[in-house]
Design goal:
Elements lengths: L29 E5 L6 H12 L3 E5 L6 H6 L1 E2 L3 E2 L4 E7 L10 E2 L26 E6 L7 E7 L4 E8 L2 E6 L16 H13 L7 E2 L5 E5 L16 E6 L5 E9 L2 E6 L6 E6 L17 E6 L13 H8 L10 H8 L9 H25 L18 H14 L1
């Protein structure tokens, strides 16, 4: 990365045969099987055991994938590794109407919601040319469809396997089965999946807008104080966008630590101050200043008619003066292009009167400053004749000559 900044994802790409040279998967956070036909038995067992210990696995089967291997791949006490069974391969006609594409409205998994944003993404423009029909047995309670195609078939399936997570797509993510890799949504989709696989218990530091602020943190991020009786395990200070400090209550839950921040959920950047004694457990989230930064998003709705709260008015008023309409008539006045607020005509009238008085006083002072009762003669010269000085000098010369 430029400037020596660390990369969030450092890929290691290996051809499928070289995976045998890996004695262990412990050095990786996530593994992607991209159009891998099958794995040797011992390697498949090691990979399944690694996932059960907390690893993340993404399977993107291509044309070379062998259904017998993936459908029979098990880990632990006979638990399936793949979240769905590979059915029959499906080919899509070039002129199919409607074309087969992912359906953003079905991207319900928390790892896919950003990538499935239909207003910002272009997933509806993806065109599949061939894919695998994925079947999720109804009796398999651990597997589910994370996203679907517009045909209703699974586009992505997922399951929890021990402490880890497995994702499986219905097609490879290259150009052999679709134009997905050419879409703007491709990188966000892959990044969000990999981030989730690398830290399946980790919470997002981007809190969606709502009636309250609830921040889900990683399972290992637990406060050292310890709580009991269902009360908060700890209370940490949180600096909100206004620069004011709030007291966040931290609760230990089965799937991690939950921080509840009271008060108005104003959009912007927050920073939770972590005491020095607890920073070791938040090491992956801390800034150099010892804080956990997180953001609260803005509501997607526009032109909301809900009145601003006193806290919101105070925040805006800190940057510029506000004139608040007092009644609906003021609102209609401003919508008509007019103004409302305090009347200024009195100030303008007083200013005009003072200007007139000043003008009269100035004229009176000028009149008094002039000399009155004296008639001063004014002589005019003709520009065609000689000047007075010349005539005087000429007369003097004549006298001297006489």
């Amino acid at each position: 990365a430029a400037g020596g900044a660390p990369s969030l994802v450092v890929p290691v790409v290996l051809p499928a045969p070289q995976i045998l040279s890996l004695g262990s998967f412990d050095g990786f956070d996530a593994v992607v099987l991209a159009d891998v036909a099958r794995l040797p038995g011992a390697t498949a067992d090691r990979l399944a055991a690694w996932v059960e210990r907390g690893g993340g696995l993404l399977i993107t089967p291509g044309r070379r994938a062998e259904p017998e291997f993936y459908n029979g791949w098990t880990g632990g006490p006979g638990r399936p590794v793949a979240p769905a069974a590979l059915g029959s391969p499906v080919s899509v006609a070039p002129d199919a109407s409607p074309p087969v594409a992912p359906s953003p409205g079905t991207f319900d998994h928390r790892a896919l919601r950003k990538a499935g944003d239909a207003e910002r993404g272009d997933l509806p423009s993806v065109r599949l040319t061939n894919y695998w029909s994925l079947r999720i047995p109804g009796s398999d309670k651990g597997a589910s469809a994370a996203a679907k195609l517009n045909t209703g078939e699974p586009f992505l399936a997922t399951r929890r396997l021990g402490a880890g997570v497995v994702f499986m797509s219905c097609c490879p993510f290259d150009n052999t089965a679709s134009n997905l890799a050419t879409r703007n949504s491709f990188l966000p989709l892959v990044h969000e999946i990999v981030y989730h696989l690398a830290d399946p218990e980790g919470g997002s530091l981007d809190v969606p807008p709502g009636a309250s602020i609830s921040l889900h943190l990683a399972a290992e991020a637990a406060p050292p104080e310890g709580g009991g009786g269902g009360g908060p395990a700890a209370r940490y200070g949180v600096l909100d966008p206004r620069g004011e400090t709030r007291a966040a209550e931290l609760f230990q839950r089965d799937r991690g630590l939950l921080a509840e921040v009271p008060g108005d959920p104003m959009a912007g950047l927050y920073e939770m101050e972590v005491p020095a004694a607890a920073r070791a457990r938040f090491a992956g989230l801390l800034t150099p200043a010892g804080t956990v930064p997180f953001t609260v998003g803005r509501p997607a709705e526009e032109a909301s008619l809900a009145p601003l709260t006193s806290a919101q008015l105070g925040f805006v008023g800190g940057y510029f003066d506000l004139l608040q309409p007092r009644d609906p008539a003021d609102v209609l006045t401003i919508l008509a292009g007019k103004s409302f607020g305090e009347e200024l005509w009195r100030y303008l009238a007083v200013g005009a009167l003072l200007l007139l008085l000043g003008e009269a006083a100035l004229a009176r002072w000028i009149a008094r400053s002039r000399k009155t009762g004296s008639n001063e003669a004014v002589e005019f010269e003709s520009r065609r004749g000689p000047g007075k000085r010349f005539l005087k000098q000429l007369a003097k010369m004549r006298e001297e000559a006489a």
